[in-house]
Amino acid sequence: MRSALDFSPLFRSTVGFDRLPRLLEAAAQVDEATLGYPPYDIEKLGDDTYRITMAVAGFGPEELGIETRENTLVVVGRQSAQDDDGSFLHKGIAGRPFQRSFQIADHVKVTGANLENGLLHIELVREVPEAMKPRSIKISTSEPKAISSTAKKVA
Q: Which residue, 4, 19, 102, 107, could crosslink 73 as a Cys pair with Cβ 3.0–4.6 Å?
């Protein structure tokens, strides 16, 4: 799928944003098979802290996997084979396998994950390296040089 937007003016005046068109195209693609499953929330908890919460009812910790690759967070769920004895009158709890990907910004790291009451909480934090943080530059002034005693006598 090609984007309807022309990004060439952006590339004439920027460096390192070549990933942007791919991110926009990936966000525009909709996978009908996984649309809305599993449901999730993305929260901003502070200036540099985030949480992704996914509703994964029926999945145990051994059936879930979390992995980061470059700037992508991937959450995978695969339930172990269950004995379906056919005694259900209605089966509405989804237990199908899934793979959900999230694009994460540079310097965002996953710091932990917790499964509680059918909700998978993934904690993220942005850790900007010290070299990339803004820093203040001290401005110095040049003091006028003292006039030497020989220059005073001449004057």
A: 102
Q: What whole-number distance in Å separates Cα of residue 42 and Cα of residue 149?
A: 73
> What does pTM read for this prediction?
0.67
Q: What gap in Å lies between CA 40 and CA 99, rounded to an integer?
A: 13
CA angle, residues 100, 104, 109, in degrees to nearest 5: 105
In angstroms, the CA 117 to CA 123 distance is 17
Phi and psi based region of residue 100 (left: phi greater than 0; alpha: psi -120 to 50; beta: remaining)? beta
- Sheet with 108-116: strands ordered across: 40-44, 49-55, 119-126, 108-116
Give per-residue pLDDT as tens, 34-82.
567 899 999 999 999 999 999 998 899 999 999 998 889 999 999 877 6
- Cα-Cα end-to-end distance for the chain: 82
Domains parsed from the chain with CATH numbers:
1-30 (no CATH), 32-128 (2.60.40.790)
3-state secondary structure of 47: coil
